[in-house]
Amino acid sequence: MADETIFDKILRREIPAQVVYEDDDVLAFRDVNPQAPVHVLVIPKKKVGRFAELKSAPLRDAGAFFAGVARVAHELRLEQNGYRVVLNNGRDGQQTVEYLHARVRAKTLFATH
Ligand code: AMP
Predict the structure, then answer these.
(1) What is the largest CA-CA distance in the chain?
(2) pLDDT digits (tens, 9 = 90+) for 11-45
(3) Does 112 have pLDDT greater than 60?
(4) Which of 94, 45, 32, 103 shows the shortest CA–CA distance to 69?
(5) Which among 8, 21, 57, 108 is most buried, taking Cβ atoms within 10 Å?
(6) Is residue 113 flagged as an active site residue?
(7) CB of 84 within 8 A of CB of 39?
(8) Quick one: pLDDT at residue 85?
(9) Is residue 36 exposed (0-12), middle (13-18) or buried (19+ Cβ within 10 Å)?
(10) DSSP string, 87-99
(11) Is the four-CA dihedral 97, 34, 15, 47 of positive or negative sign?
(12) Is the separation of the CB atoms in 43 and 11 below 8 Å?
């Protein structure tokens, strides 16, 4: 079991975050250090430490995560102009929080949240 991270605590609402979307599979919240007008982090509710672990995870879990990321972009109304999805994996991938998270970034702010 991976170590407890700040994202575990956000998921359990033990520390605050600006949640922009949530469903059975994912939680999305604004990055505290945004690098773009829209910069949210999407985490799977079923914990995965890092992207590499998906190689042996049930396909349903990987699919649920990526579908959830797409739903977040849809809810934020980013589909028309487009957006970027970034996954950092491990030290050389500059992953600092050991809880799988996709960054959804867009340069045009359409979100109503
Ligand atoms: P990474 O470096 O890929 O692991 O990304 C971690 C991201 O989490 C960084 O962009 C941080 O700005 C962001 N972050 C860290 N703590 C929080 C927090 N409490 N709420 C929202 N975003 C956070």
Answers:
(1) 39
(2) 999 999 999 999 999 999 999 999 999 999 999 99
(3) no
(4) 103
(5) 21
(6) no
(7) no
(8) 98
(9) middle
(10) E--TGGGT--SSS
(11) negative
(12) yes
Q: Could you identify the atom of ligand 1 that is nearest to the CA of residue 97?
A: 4
pLDDT band (50, 70, 90) for residue 110:
low
Is the pLDDT confidence value at 113 over 50? no
Q: Which of 39, 74, 101, 113 is catalytic?
A: 101
- Ligand 1 site: residues with CB under 6 angstroms? 6, 17, 29, 31-33, 41, 88, 94-97
Measuring CA to CA, which residue among 35, 108, 37, 110 is closest to residue 74?
110
Give 9-60 as a DSSP string.
HHHTTSS---EEEE-SSEEEEE-SS-SSSEEEEEEESS--SSGGGGGGS-HH
**Cβ-proximal residues to 50 (8 Å cutoff; 6+ apart), any chain:** 89, 90, 95, 98, 100
Please state the rounded mean pLDDT for residues 88-112: 90
Q: What is the pLDDT of residues 60-90, one digit of tens each?
A: 999 999 999 999 999 999 999 999 999 999 9
